[in-house]
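Structure tokens please, single chain.
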Amino acid sequence: MKYKSLIVENIKATINSYIFKYLLITSLIINIVYTLNILFNNLSFNYLESLYYISTNAFYILFFLALILINTINTLHIFNKNTFYIIRFHSKKEYYNSLIKNVFLVNSIFYFINMILLITMCNLIFGSTFVITNWQQYNVINIVYIIFHFVKCLIIIEIITTLFPIIYKAYGRIGMIVYLLFIGIPLLLSSYKVEIINDIWKMSLFPVNYLSGGNYSSFSLELFSTFIYIIILLIFYCISFEIIKRKVKGVIE
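Here you go.
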């Protein structure tokens, strides 16, 4: 069996697992609850504002990151069960590269399905309020900003979640919990949203602050800050990957 076929088979096994299906059901319930919350509380948001409001809600993000974490562990478990696949690797580098590729693809699938569920719910309830206008104080069309927001979230989530399996292999569940707390706690400290960010040096150091939106003085500043931060995350990821990969022994020699 070819290498690409093996990757496809692992991905199929993961998305066909009961855990993945339960995660999708949970995701559907969460999206329904948060969409109805806007409706029942008579919040005056239009269609695109509703998408943004829900996707940047602190607890919504925490729930989603928890689902992604479980999905990652499930992917890791199914990946390691396929011994026929693993014995084909000649080094730890091949093993981890393939593992990360599987996690990246499965989490991308889960992210897009969750996004489709959210868009569908908002479309059913707020579809009639769709308008194209400038986004808040920015001189940019709202639909362009929403697309930017979801693409930004996808990139940042993929970077922080592809470290999950490596940390799990190196430090076990305790390491995963500590890493998740590092990611999640800043969401509960919402004071950073109050101050307007009007300088690149005021950009946040926590990845979740970029998932929960920000209060920038201009769209160009937010775009540039996000770009710089993604570069920083990638550098941090590469360094962490090498350090943790050397720490883990006994997988593939």
